[in-house]
C-alpha cells in the first residue's frame, strides 16, 4: 500500500503532536499507518517505538527499535531505549548488553543532544546497578555452595573480578618480542624455585653493599636513559634520577668497578640460573626509587623471562602492581613476575626504596627452547653491533 506525500506528512505531524501531549496510543496508531506502507524512514520507526513505549506496548516498541537498529546499528537513541525497556522487563543481562552498545555508539559522535546525554548518563548508572546486582547474586550463590573465593586462590578471585566487570583481563604485551604459548601469569611463588631461600638468606650482606652504594653514589645513573642513536620510547621518568640504577651486569657483562664494590652480591648472583646471552644477559642492578615516586604503568620487552626483586631497603607504603594483582613490597620477601604484563610501582614513603633486580628464564621454557632463544637473541644483538 502506498500513500501520497501530503498524507504521510499529515500522519507524521499528527503522530508527533500525540507524542507531545503524552498520548502514546494515538501516536502508535497514527505512525503505524505510515510504517504499514513500507515508506517509513528510520525516524518514523523511532517515533513509533516511542509511541509504543509510552503506551506500554513493549513488544511493539522492541519490534520498531529492531527495525531502526537493522538500518542504523549505532543509533544511540534506539540502543538506549532497548535497554530501558528490557530493564522494565527485569532482564538485566539483556539490558546490560544494550546499554553498553549505546554507550559505545555514543563515542562515535562529536556532539549529542542534551536529552540523549541525560539518558546515556542514566544508562551508565544502570550498568553499575546491574553489575552490583549480578555480583551480589553471584556471591550469594557461592556462599550457598560453600565456596570461599579467597580460599580458591588468586586465579579464581581474578576471574570473578573480570566476570563482574571490576577489572579487565591483563595479558602479556611485550614491547619487543612475544613468544607464544606461555602462561598468562602475573606473579610466581618464589617457593617454586629451589634457589630462592639461599638467596634470601644472603640478603643482609647484599643490603649492606646497597647501603654503601647509597653513601657513595658513584656509578648510579637514571634507570631509564634516552638512547644515543635511536628514537626514545616515551617514559615519564626518562633521564630522571628519581628512579636510578646501579648496574652490576649490563649488556651481558659485569661492570668491573661496580662489581668490585659488591662482592657479596656478585657471589650470590653467581649461584643463580641467570640467562647467558651475549650482548644481553645477565642483567642485574640495584633499583633506587626516590620518596614519593610513581613508576607509571608500562610493559617490558620480552615475555620469555621473569623479573626477580629482592627488596633490600624498603620503607612503609611501597607497592608493586602486575596486571590485576598488587603486592606490598617488604624487605627480604622476594617478588617474581612477568614484566611483559602491564605493571607499575609506588614509593609513597618519605625514604628511599632499594631493590636488587635480576632476570631468569621463564620456567616453562624447555632446554631446547632456551638454546634456540639464546641464539635468536644473540643474532639480534650481533646485528645491532654490526650496525653501530
Report on this structure:
This protein has 388 residues and is α+β, with helices and mostly antiparallel strands. It folds into 2 domains: 5-135, Tetratricopeptide repeat domain (Serine Threonine Protein Phosphatase 5, Tetratricopeptide repeat); 187-387, Jelly Rolls (Sandwich). The chain is 47% helix and 16% strand. The chain has 14 helices and 12 strands. It has helices at residues 5-20, 24-35, 42-54, 58-71, 76-89, 92-106, 114-144, 149-152, 154-163, 196-201, 203-215, 256-261, 263-270, 367-387, and strands at 187-188, 220-222, 243-250, 253-254, 284-289, 293-298, 305-313, 318-322, 325-328, 335-337, 343-347, 353-361. The strands form 2 sheets. Strands 1, 2, 3, 4, 5, 7, 10 and 12 form an 8-stranded antiparallel sheet that branches. Helix 1 runs antiparallel to helix 2 (24-35), helix 3 packs antiparallel against helix 4 (58-71) and helix 4 (58-71) runs antiparallel to helix 5 (76-89). The chain is elongated. The termini are far apart. The mean pLDDT is 92.
Amino acid at each position: 500500500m502506498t500513500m501520497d506525500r501530503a498524507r504521510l506528512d499529515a500522519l507524521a505531524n499528527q503522530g508527533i503532536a500525540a507524542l507531545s501531549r503524552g498520548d502514546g496510543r494515538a501516536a502508535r496508531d497514527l505512525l503505524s499507518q505510515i510504517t504499514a506502507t513500507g515508506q517509513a524512514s528510520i525516524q518514523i520507526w523511532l517515533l513509533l517505538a516511542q509511541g509504543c513505549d509510552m503506551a506500554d506496548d513493549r513488544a511493539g516498541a522492541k519490534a520498531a527499535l529492531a527495525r531502526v537498529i537493522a538500518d542504523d546499528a549505532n543509533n544511540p537513541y534506539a540502543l538506549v531505549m532497548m535497554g530501558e525497556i528490557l530493564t522494565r522487563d527485569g532482564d538485566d543481562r539483556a539490558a546490560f548488553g544494550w546499554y553498553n552498545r549505546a554507550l559505545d555508539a555514543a563515542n562515535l559522535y562529536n556532539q549529542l543532544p542534551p536529552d540523549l546525554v541525560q539518558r546515556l548518563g542514566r544508562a551508565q548508572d544502570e550498568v553499575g546497578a546491574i553489575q552490583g546486582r549480578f555480583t551480589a547474586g553471584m556471591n550469594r550463590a557461592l556462599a550457598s555452595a560453600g565456596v570461599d573465593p579467597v580460599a580458591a586462590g588468586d586465579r579464581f578471585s581474578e576471574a570473578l573480578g573480570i566476570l563482574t566487570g571490576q577489572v579487565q583481563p591483563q595479558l602479556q604485551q611485550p614491547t619487543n618480542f612475544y613468544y607464544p604459548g606461555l602462561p598468562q601469569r602475573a606473579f610466581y611463588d618464589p617457593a617454586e624455585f629451589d634457589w630462592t631461600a639461599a638467596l634470601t638468606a644472603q640478603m643482609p650482606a647484599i643490603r649492606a653493599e646497597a647501603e654503601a652504594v647509597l653513601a657513595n653514589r658513584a656509578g648510579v645513573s637514571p634507570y631509564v636513559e634516552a638512547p644515543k642513536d635511536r628514537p626514545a620510547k616515551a617514559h615519564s621518568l626518562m633521564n630522571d634520577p628519581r628512579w636510578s640504577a646501579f648496574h652490576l651486569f649490563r649488556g651481558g657483562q659485569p661492570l668491573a668497578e661496580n662489581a668490585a664494590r659488591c662482592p657479596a652480591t656478585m657471589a650470590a648472583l653467581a649461584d643463580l640460573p641467570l640467562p647467558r646471552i651475549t650482548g644481553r644477559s645477565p642483567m642485574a642492578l640495584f633499583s633506587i626509587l626516590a620518596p614519593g615516586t610513581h613508576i607509571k604503568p608500562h610493559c617490558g620487552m620480552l615475555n620469555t623471562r621473569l623479573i626477580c626483586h629482592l627488596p633490600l631497603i624498603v620503607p612503609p607504603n611501597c607497592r608493586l602492581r602486575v596486571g590485576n594483582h598488587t603486592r606490598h613490597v617488604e624487605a627480604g620477601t622476594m617478588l617474581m613476575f612477568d614484566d611483559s604484563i602491564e605493571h607499575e610501582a609506588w614509593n609513597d614513603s618519605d625514604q628511599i626504596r632499594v631493590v636488587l633486580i635480576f632476570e631468569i628464564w621463564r620456567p616453562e621454557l624447555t632446554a631446547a627452547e632456551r638454546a634456540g632463544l639464546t641464539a635468536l637473541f644473540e643474532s639480534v644483538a650481533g646485528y645491532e653491533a654490526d650496525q653501530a
